[in-house]
Specification:
Elements lengths: L17 H19 L7 H11 L3 H7 L3 H11 L1
């Protein structure tokens, strides 16, 4: 069964640009802090929830921040 050339991406998931991913991840982090509170450091589980809430992949997250602490620093500046 051939897929029409103009229809081959229909239903495919699109990912935000890195700039958009950064903004969405930080906004998701802010919402997390507003709901749960601020703690020193971020566990992998918290980062995963923040990424899920932002619609950002872990690969995009790691392209933007080399470590969870780097993200936490940026998040702290945004607060």
């Amino acid at each position: 069964m051939a897929v029409p050339a103009d229809n081959w991406l229909k239903g495919a998931r699109s990912y935000p640009s890195l700039e958009e991913a950064r903004s969405k991840a930080l906004q998701s982090g802010i919402r997390y802090v507003e709901n749960v509170g601020l703690a020193l450091g971020m566990t992998a589980g918290v980062i995963e929830r923040i990424c899920d809430g932002a619609g950002v992949t872990s690969a995009q997250f790691m392209k933007l921040w080399a470590s969870n602490d780097d993200f936490f620093t940026d998040l702290f500046v945004e607060l």
